Amino acid sequence: MHTEQLISTFVEYYEERGHRRITGSTLLPPDGDSVLFTTSGMHPLTPHLEGRPHPLGKRLVNVQRCLRTTDLDEVGDATHLTVFEMLGTWSLGDYEGPLSLDWGYGLLTEGLGIDPGLLHATAFAGDGRTGPDTASVELWQGLGVPIELTVDDNWWSNGPVGPCGPDSEIFLWSGEGPPRSTPTGDDRWVEVWNHVTMTHRRLGDGSLVPLPQRNVDTGLGLERLASLLQGRSSVFACDVFDPWRRHVPALWPLDEPSLRLVCDHLRSAVVVLGDGVRPANTGRGYVLRRLVRRLLTVLWRDDPSRSIGDLPEELVQHTLDHFRQDTRPGDVLRMLREEEHRFSRLLDRGRQVLARSRFQGPLTEDDFGYLHDTHGLPRDLITSLRRHED
Ligand code: SER
């Protein structure tokens, strides 16, 4: 199933159950949110989870682009992307968690044809502050889906402060042969859908206060589910990456881990630029800068003559269109090239600095700290520059 078809099946299923579609918005969260980027579909809805009525009512559905840097070092494995899309549903003080799970199960099995025997659920076991999520446990038992209870993995928070609550996650078996073990025991169980019952708000001092209403917030990772439905071994092999897989290896021969990182970071950089962020040394702009520098570090490891400027404009256009962004692809490419030049100049400086006698022996942590803080040289780049000098 193509991702566009997956999106429409999802949205229609929830529209039939009284949900109104809201327009997914930018990667920049609303003012006052505690995170740099939208990391989950609920960010634009925070005020409504906290009680402000939403103009479209109490049942909502959307597709939201998200960016997560917490998983940056995992990018390149089978399931993590920096920018991804989340299909989301919300009950704003309307129905409760078990109905949400029941609908989710119905969509996955009847709507999308997934074998119920390949599903596993998890739920909140309870801790000193909040009791166990018995309602979710009973729902899963009634459906005959195996369930595992955890504490930390089944409490969802928006960030250090903000709405939070117990969640029940749905996992899909990705291994060959019959499912084994449990989600915490075997990573071939891939988490696809999280149903959070948002009951509390965490305050700056860490304490929890009940929200004025009980909400349900669910998020399903589009590329993850698409790759599993398409029988692909990783998110990088789902249809979203088809154009990237067509163009990038033709430009730059890369091994699979490098290809994944380059595609992920380039695609993310295009979307971040498309949402109006510009490279900088702090905040969002620094995240963008790091993405570009990480991918250039990988590209230049084998061949320093490679340039982002060679990227076909149609690939950038395809990505901007997919995310419904109206920035011109030529502008995006120009900004990427400017950032590439800045980095290239920095490297030249770096080579000169590294040639100093102080840096001829093994480098200490202080050296790495100094080279990073004073000259902006990341550790993997220093290592690779020194390797090339050997
Ligand atoms: N906010 C939850 C998550 O990000 C569900 O959407 O997993």
TrEMBL record:
<dbReference type="GO" id="GO:0006419">
    <property type="term" value="P:alanyl-tRNA aminoacylation"/>
</dbReference>
<dbReference type="InterPro" id="IPR050058">
    <property type="entry name" value="Ala-tRNA_ligase"/>
</dbReference>
<protein>
    <recommendedName>
        <fullName>alanine--tRNA ligase</fullName>
        <ecNumber>6.1.1.7</ecNumber>
    </recommendedName>
</protein>
<dbReference type="GO" id="GO:0002161">
    <property type="term" value="F:aminoacyl-tRNA deacylase activity"/>
</dbReference>
<dbReference type="InterPro" id="IPR045864">
    <property type="entry name" value="aa-tRNA-synth_II/BPL/LPL"/>
</dbReference>
<dbReference type="Pfam" id="PF01411">
    <property type="entry name" value="tRNA-synt_2c"/>
</dbReference>
<keyword id="KW-0820">tRNA-binding</keyword>
<dbReference type="GO" id="GO:0000049">
    <property type="term" value="F:tRNA binding"/>
</dbReference>
<keyword id="KW-0648">Protein biosynthesis</keyword>
<dbReference type="GO" id="GO:0004813">
    <property type="term" value="F:alanine-tRNA ligase activity"/>
</dbReference>
<dbReference type="InterPro" id="IPR018164">
    <property type="entry name" value="Ala-tRNA-synth_IIc_N"/>
</dbReference>
<keyword id="KW-0694">RNA-binding</keyword>
<feature type="domain" description="Alanyl-transfer RNA synthetases family profile">
    <location>
        <begin position="1"/>
        <end position="390"/>
    </location>
</feature>
<dbReference type="GO" id="GO:0005524">
    <property type="term" value="F:ATP binding"/>
</dbReference>
<dbReference type="GO" id="GO:0005829">
    <property type="term" value="C:cytosol"/>
</dbReference>
<dbReference type="InterPro" id="IPR002318">
    <property type="entry name" value="Ala-tRNA-lgiase_IIc"/>
</dbReference>
<dbReference type="InterPro" id="IPR018165">
    <property type="entry name" value="Ala-tRNA-synth_IIc_core"/>
</dbReference>
<keyword id="KW-0030">Aminoacyl-tRNA synthetase</keyword>
<keyword id="KW-0436">Ligase</keyword>
<dbReference type="InterPro" id="IPR018162">
    <property type="entry name" value="Ala-tRNA-ligase_IIc_anticod-bd"/>
</dbReference>
<comment type="similarity">
    <text>Belongs to the class-II aminoacyl-tRNA synthetase family.</text>
</comment>
<keyword id="KW-0067">ATP-binding</keyword>
<keyword id="KW-0547">Nucleotide-binding</keyword>
